[in-house]
Write a structure and sequence with these properties.
By secondary structure, the chain is α+β, with helices and mostly antiparallel strands. The chain has helices at residues 54-64, 70-78, 97-103, 165-180, 198-207, 223-243, 250-264, 274-279; strands at residues 9-13, 19-22, 25-38, 41-51, 123-128, 142-148, 154-159, 186-189, 210-213, 293-298, 312-320, 327-331, 336-340, 343-350. The termini are far apart. This is Integrase catalytic domain-containing protein. Residues 115-282 form the Integrase catalytic domain.
Length: 444
């Protein structure tokens, strides 16, 4: 067929000819038949098709309407929402360079119905929180999050530097593989320097792990870890807002939120909790308590007691121990975070209404207390010298060794109180303006 009538010889017109359809839509009508001769070759019964001007009209109006969406143009004309519009059916054909340069957006991402993971530890998603502006009680500023793809079970580790990521992951992989008698096959992360280091490469070679990366500036491809980050941060922020505790309790809130989510959330595919999928038994929630509630911790031989001294001390409930059956309590008397099973809770009273000496307000969390101090016990290698805030180095007897921890616990141990609460230690990305010499408005 041809759209050029002049090429046809012995042309015979017809009436009410058949329609020509391309791509499921009408493109023209056959008006007649003829022959085409070229170089002693004759082609007979060549159909003459009168071209439909619909496509050209669409392109013309698309440009007239400042490259408006074709779907909207079609609705304007078909539903007669405007006057003096052409009676054409606008369908987008091909790709226009100008539209792509002016309107192209990021590709959309949808949840995968079929998961690649066939068992626990087959694929681990991991990511690192952004640098926290306020140091935690253990002087940590990063949170390393690991999520199992199959069960959605989550582990969190608190770091001082990004360079600790590979060593923490190395210890974790060795322990979790031994615990579950299984192996890690793949790990997926973004292109952070902590995941592309030489140490991380050696770790993957040692355990035979395939390392996958998301595309640059495409966090959606690491969406499981990114979404878990958001869940933990929102839960931690909510706990701080509810209790009015200082911001440097953020690690305790994240640690507690992770512990609870593993046992109280429901996976979409398996309709079970991550804990049941990972451990093979249903979680027990009978020991759960309200974060930040007032509690009483038994003075079980921690210090000498006189005959008529109080047997318990006031405390704030701040979480659960991961490696033993114990609660984590901030002792208001000794001013340390302790772990004990001998705790009595008063969940009807939050500690924010029991401490008139605290300078917190619902509008903003204060960075200090007037008469109350919070000093966290840490392991010996976590002591920071010459910084005005040096936690002690004696570990609590029930705390597991750091090299054996699957999930890092912030600040456990027994130390002596050190006066008033220090101000929150903040990390400044920019140089303090009050230390700049000269006029800032003057050019260099």
């Amino acid at each position: 067929m041809t759209r050029t009538k002049g090429l046809l010889k012995e042309y015979i017109p017809i009436k009410n000819g058949p329609k020509v359809i391309f791509g499921g839509s009408e493109r023209g009508i056959i008006k007649g038949f003829g022959n085409i001769s070229s170089n002693q070759i004759t082609i007979t019964q060549v159909a003459y098709v009168k071209a439909d001007d619909n496509a050209s009209h669409c392109v013309k109006w698309h440009k007239r309407l400042t490259h408006l969406n074709y779907k909207i143009i079609g609705q304007l004309f078909s539903k007669e929402l405007v006057r003096n519009g052409p009676h054409v059916k606008c369908i987008k054909e091909g790709i226009y360079s100008a539209c792509q340069k002016g309107k192209q957006t990021k590709s959309s991402f949808h949840s995968l119905e079929n998961k690649d993971s066939v068992r626990c530890l087959y694929l681990l998603h991991m990511d690192l929180f952004d640098h926290m502006p306020v140091h935690s009680l253990g002087r940590k500023v990063y949170t390393f999050v690991v999520v199992d793809d199959y069960s959605r079970y989550t582990w969190v580790f608190f770091l001082r530097q990004k360079s600790e990521t590979s060593s923490v992951l190395h210890s974790f992989v060795k322990q979790i593989q031994n615990e579950l008698n299984s192996t890690v096959v793949k790990i997926r992360s973004d292109h952070g320097t902590e995941f592309q280091s030489e140490c991380m490469t050696r770790l993957c070679e040692e355990f035979g792990i395939f390392q996958e990366f998301s595309s640059p500036r495409t966090p959606q491809q690491n969406g499981i870890a990114e979404r878990k980050n958001r869940t933990l941060i929102e839960a931690g922020r909510t706990l701080l807002s509810d209790t009015f505790l200082p911001e440097y309790f953020w690690a305790e809130t994240v640690n507690t939120a992770c512990h609870v989510i593993n046992r109280a959330s429901i996976t979409k595919i398996h309709k079970k909790t991550p804990y049941e999928i990972m451990k093979g038994r249903k979680p027990n929630l009978s020991y759960f308590r309200i974060f930040g509630c007032k509690c009483y911790i038994l003075n079980n031989g921690k210090s000498y007691l006189t005959k008529f001294a109080a047997k318990s001390q006031d405390g704030i409930f701040v979480g659960y121990n991961i490696n033993s059956k114990a609660y984590r309590v901030y002792n208001l008397t000794t001013q340390v975070v302790e772990e004990s099973v001998h705790v009595v809770f008063d969940e009807t009273r939050l500690i924010n209404s029991e401490l008139p000496c605290r300078s917190f307000s619902p509008i903003g969390i204060s960075n200090r207390m007037d008469k109350l101090s919070i000093v966290e016990g840490t392991t010996a290698d976590e002591v920071v010298e010459n910084d005005g805030y040096c936690p002690g180095g004696v570990q609590d007897s029930i705390e597991a060794d750091d090299n054996q921890e699957v999930q890092h616990n912030e600040g456990t141990g027994d130390i002596q109180p050190e006066g008033n609460l220090p101000p929150a230690i903040r990390h400044l990305k920019d140089h303090p303006a009050n230390q700049i010499i000269g006029d800032l408005r003057q050019g260099v």
